[in-house]
Amino acid sequence: MDTVLAFDFGLKRIGVAVGNTVIRQAQPLAVIRAATNDGKFAEIGELIRQWQPAVCVVGLPRHPDGVEHEMSVRCRRFANQLHGRFDVATVLVDERYSSAVISHQRGEAIDDRAAAIILQQYFDDESHS
């Protein structure tokens, strides 16, 4: 059984979800709100030490037509930093519709739920079986 962490990267907040390769069910875990890049990576590092993931999944935003935009580049950079700083495999998952799924929900802390949707997409994709 391998643990998987997923991240919904944002400039102000990063949503985090957790799951494993046996149950294949994503659960919201945390919302990282650190003001600095170093602070964000310190919190992420603590989660990685605690959960020891085999892989980290990062949501890759795209326009509805599939074209990447500015946040796509930032998310790719974030995934590369996760890999480089923590020596953990990273996978990018199309997150085009994750926000739409939870947009009807109220409250600010939806980032962890968006990360859970991204992780569930990863689990549901047969290529990751």
TrEMBL record:
It is an enzyme of class 3 (hydrolase). Keywords: Cytoplasm, Hydrolase, Nuclease, Ribosome biogenesis. Its EC number is 3.1.-.-. Its main location: cytoplasm. InterPro entries: RNaseH-like_sf, YqgF, YqgF/RNaseH-like_dom, YqgF/RNaseH-like_dom_sf. HAMAP family: Nuclease_YqgF (MF_00651). Belongs to the YqgF HJR family. This is Putative pre-16S rRNA nuclease. It comes from Oxalicibacterium flavum.
